[in-house]
Amino acid sequence: MLALRDLAISAAGRAITTGTSLDIARGETIAIVGESGSGKSLTAKAIARLLPPGVSATGRVTYDGTDLLALPEREMQQIRGSRLSLMLQDPFTMLNPLMKSGLHIAEMLRDRPEFRDRAALKAEVARRLTEVGITDPDVAERMPFQLSGGMSQRISLAAALARDPELLIADEPSTALDVTTQAEIIKLLKRVQQSRGMSLVLITHNLRLAFSACDRIYVLYAGSLLEVGTARAVEADPFHPYTLGLLLSEPPADKRVPKLIAIRGKVPGADEVAGRCVFSDRCDWAKEICRVAAPALAELAPGRLTACIRRSEIAAEMQALRGSALAPSDPPQPPDRGIQPIVRTANLVKTFAGRHGRAVEALKGVSIEVRPGESVGLVGESGSGKTTLGRSLVGLETPTNGRIEIGGYDASDFSAMTAVDRAATRRTIQMVFQDPYSTLNPRHSVRRSLSEAIGTIGRFPGSEIDSRIAELLREVGLPEHYAERRPSSLSGGERQRVAIARALSVNPKILVCDEPVSALDVSVQAQILNLFKRLQSELGLSYLFITHDLAVVRQIAERIYVLYLGEIVEHGSAEEVIGRPQHPYTKRLIDSIPH
Amino acid sequence: MMRSGVARLILMRLAIAVPLLLIISFGVFSLVHLAPGDPVRSLLGTRPSDPETLANLRARYHLDDPFIVQYGKWLGQVLRGDLGRSINGNRLVLSSIKERASVTVYLCLVSTVIVLVAGISLGMLAAFRRGGRLDRFVVMFGVFGISSPAFVTGIFLLYVFGVVLGWFPTFGAGRGFLDRFWHLTLPSLALALSIMAIVVKITRASMIEVMDRDYVAFARARGMSGMRITLAYILRNALIPVVTAGGLIVIGFLANAIYVEVTFALPGLGSLIVDAVQKRDIPLIQGTTLVFALFVVIINLVVDVIYTMIDPRIRFGRVAS
Amino acid sequence: MSLHVDIARPKGVTPRTAIPAAIVIAFIIVAIVVICAFFGGSIAPDSPFTQRLQVGDVPPSAEFLAGTDLLGRDVLSRVIHGAWTALVGPVVVAAGAFAIATVLGLLSGYLGGAVDSAIMRWVDFMLALPGPLVAIVVVGVVGGGYWTAVTVLIILFTAPDTRIVRSAVLEQRPRPYIDAARALGVSKARILFIHILPNVLPIILAYVVLDFAFALVNLAGLSFLGLGVEPGTPDWGRMLFENRTILFTNPVALLLPAAMVILTAVSMNLIGDWLFARFTRQ
């Protein structure tokens, strides 16, 4: 039904994707999987002829026999919405902030004769809302800013489907949402797709999601297709090292592995790797032959394509790597019960004064503890209070009630502590933040940021500071000369490493890590997680690892607390909580993991 | 629920406007004492300074009472509609104002129409043809407009169309409707050009920003017609910053109206106030400043209310970006 | 719920884009004005004060390239000397207003609470005042000429500038690098001046330039109404005030200073806009 042939996208003379070819039949679901910079979103936009100004596409996009790229705009406009539809990434910005949500659907049906009548139109809108799981017709009267992320996504879906298109392209339909909402939306998409007999193109960076939701997969990296096949086949035996690397980078939730196989290096832009296999710079199996020219996609089995020209040679090695990588490690030794915890909170309460006097109870009596050398996970979604808890531990928030003990000191109110105690507490516990792009002062060099941090624990001679900086950089896996660099010249993963180095410069005993890898590419995530594990064993660090991702927390933490709406609903060892969840919320979290 | 929300907001704005006007009136009142020298001297003007006249002045302006009492009495007078008498000519301030008001109002109305129609249209056009020649021209026009206060544009217009080409008169406001229109063409244009620049700049920038937004792209992805997208999606959202800047625009109008009236020797409120200031006619200054300030505060209030009505996010207590 | 990393963020040094031709011209014009302001005495063909009452106002000739005004003074020399008041006052206004505004904005934005409320209340009040009217009335009544006008403008400009600085500070404050500094125990003062200020300064600089242009226009306006500089001083706004009557005999005496006002203000506006665009692109 839809066929792409050699679709190449470029902007300002630089290539963003090289010739991509793709097929999708009626009623099929395919996934285009790729990390940032792969060109997947632009490919989606190119199909709908909605490329931003300055970006152009060449090639052929055939829809039911018509070449979409050659159509005049007026005809293309007829096709959009009624025959093929596109949903964008961010549910919060897809709707017109000044238009009621129902109107987004109604405006697409208004000109049909059967909906001239107001009442009929209203009833139809209500019907469409139920199709996407909204049973309360009053939602149609709400403005977009009054909707939650999940609701917005559903309304957008209803609007995209209003004219009953045969093909829907959904760009990262769940990425901006909570884990549990994500799962619901994907289920909704599948349901709608099946009941309408629609074709669905799912754009995502999440391989597992692609495997669980789609029939066939296209793997895109740095603008080139590297692998094509059915979901089952690719999952069972990936033909391309990148696909394998991606698979292994994503931490499994069902077991703890000793070390995640991370793909080294960072994700390049298409034009940086022109003229050779786009993955060769980061591939462990790359040989000269891979760098001579960009290998073409070859069909090694019916429907199974790969751009790895060494496939036949390395197939066995790849299987072996997979096997060893997924071998479970020994369960971690539970620490001695007798040792005093480094961090302990007792009935912590934090209430924020919200808008219009409506108080928000972020924490409703939370008690946790972390013992020396231990890694504890704090799992929760947005609104659970996890960030508030983390911030309270390092003094960025002051709890309304309850006690915090850090390293033996009462740290319930940082401003009430003596300067000496406070300084000592700050040398015990430090924090690593979520967004690597704003975690460093953009105007300070790495050296400056690290010197400042070192300076908080005392005055040292310049030479000592220099050597300490070099040591810290080495510790986090960065070359020494990075000290002179500014954050703008570092990638996300590198910035996060510097941030970790900064936290380590005061020799803390415990690090509070608030979603430290969520903002990173999957292949980089694994690198940083490995770093955390190494630091733990080398320095005897403890962690309070805050995240929404159960799979990530499985790899790092020995014990897990599950936080829901400001309360701990479950607590136990990682195996227990993930393997045998008791609380319904925990069960929902686990079910949300794509499988 | 919507009605009460809007009414509440109007009341809130009024609650701020009233103290504001009081403070302004206080400041205006204190001008008498701000002037260098004895207040009596300022109020004397050109009259002889014999003891009897001075004593009369002292009594009439309550100069021997404590400051606050003076203010109270003055305020009482003002609220009753008595704005005093000008020193030069001893005319009732209120009559001078009434006489001159029509010219200023006319000038401002015509300019406002030109500014809104031409300004917004140009801004829209430039945004649609982003990067093209028209766009670059409009941007340049905007920069020049903002940098050229009305007395500068006025002089250039005056020279080209009044002196060189002789199409329009160079001073005065004319008699009769058509004559007045002919006299006020150049001044209105001068005034409009300076203000239009701000409106064009904001409209263009706002439209460009909105056109890049996701909801516009999604509307296109759903096959909505160009007209619908332009009106309901782009314009509606893009015009909000223009309304928000309403206060800025009004202030600009105020200053430039004064300049224009002086440049073209128009007998309006602006030139009245400049005259009064040049002649140190305190009561006249006080009266005209108060009326002007009242105008500005009222117009700002109206703009605020309009803004509240067109952006539902405000009604519900959220701050729009 | 991951924030998806956008590869479009610059990796490596931000590319140096070429300076547009218009900006180059703008810089040249500003340079000319600065040179005239400081070296006017050496450049001008004549003294700006010499009156030739018998000659009166004459149109441009070989002897007086821009003609003379009503009192027989050389217009060109007066325009050249006028660059001084066109430069000094606006610089003082822009720099002064922003110096105060930076302190207020930093405190208001970072400390929040009562300090912020108090300062913003004052800002809101100042912004509700009809500024140009206040300037005209106060300068007129108090007298005192040029520097009174400068002072009044500084006071009037401080409020909107404070709002700008505060917005910029509020943008930086929630960022993790500030949180990290707080968690490390870095002092409030250090955070304000070493972390926040350097990140806010580029935007402030762009606005200072824009403020200069606005101050120039306002000062010239006040002089145009006879309220700014003392009579006799060579000043562009003042010349517009004095020479309106000779529009028919020597229009250059009006057009030249008017053009200078526009050109200088346009140049500074262009430079300010360009700086603003450069700093927000990063």
Please describe what this structure looks like.
The complex is a heterotrimer of chains A (595), B (321) and C (282). Chain A is 34% helix and 23% strand. Chain A contains 20 helices and 23 strands. In chain A, the strands form four sheets. An eight-stranded mixed sheet of chain A has the order 6-7-8-3-9-10-12-11, sandwiched between helices. A six-stranded mixed sheet of chain A has the order 19-20-21-16-22-23, with helices on both faces. In chain A, helix 3 (101-109) crosses helix 4 and helix 6 (179-196) crosses helix 20 (584-592). The mean pLDDT of chain A is 88. In chain B, helix 11 runs antiparallel to helix 13 (282-310) and helix 12 runs antiparallel to helix 13 (282-310). Chain B has 14 helices and no strands. Chain B is globular. With 282 residues, chain C is mainly α. Helix content of chain C is 71%, strand content 0%. Chain C has nine helices and no strands. Chain C has helices spanning 21-43, 75-111, 113-128, 131-142, 145-172, 176-184, 188-224, 236-242, 252-281. Chain C is elongated. Chains B and C meet through helix 1, helix 6, helix 7, helix 11 and helix 12 of B and helix 3, helix 4, helix 7 and helix 9 of C.
Share of helical residues of chain C = over 70%
Question: Main β-sheet of chain C, in a few words?
Answer: none
Structural category of chain C is: mainly alpha
Average pLDDT for all residues of chain C: 87
Mass-distribution shape of chain C: elongated
What characteristics describe this protein?
heterotrimer; B: 321 residues; mainly alpha; 78% helix; C: 282 residues; 9 helices; 0% strand; disordered N terminus
Brief write-up:
The complex is a heterotrimer of chains A (595), B (321) and C (282). Chain B is an all-alpha fold and 321 residues long.
Topology, please?
The complex is a heterotrimer of chains A (595), B (321) and C (282).
Chain A: E1 2-11, E2 14-24, E3 29-33, H1 40-47, E4 55-63, E5 66-67, H2 73-79, E6 84-87, H3 101-109, H4 118-131, H5 149-161, E7 167-171, H6 179-196, E8 199-204, H7 207-213, E9 216-221, E10 224-230, H8 231-236, H9 241-249, H10 288-292, E11 298-301, E12 304-306, H11 311-325, E13 343-353, E14 359-366, E15 369-370, E16 375-379, H12 386-393, E17 401-406, E18 409-410, H13 419-426, E19 429-432, H14 446-455, H15 462-475, H16 492-504, E20 510-514, H17 522-539, E21 542-547, H18 550-556, E22 559-564, E23 567-573, H19 574-579, H20 584-592
Parallel strand pairs in A: 3-8, 3-9, 6-7, 7-8, 16-21, 16-22, 19-20, 20-21
Antiparallel strand pairs in A: 1-2, 1-4, 4-5, 9-10, 10-12, 11-12, 13-14, 13-15, 13-17, 17-18, 22-23
Chain B: H1 2-34, H2 39-44, H3 51-60, H4 67-79, H5 93-128, H6 133-147, H7 150-164, H8 177-211, H9 214-221, H10 226-244, H11 246-263, H12 269-278, H13 282-310, H14 312-315
Helix pairs in contact in B: 1-13, 5-6, 5-8, 6-8, 7-8, 7-11, 8-10, 8-11, 9-10, 11-12, 11-13, 12-13
Chain C: H1 21-43, H2 75-111, H3 113-128, H4 131-142, H5 145-172, H6 176-184, H7 188-224, H8 236-242, H9 252-281
Helix pairs in contact in C: 1-2, 1-9, 2-3, 2-5, 2-7, 2-9, 3-5, 4-5, 5-7, 7-8, 7-9, 8-9
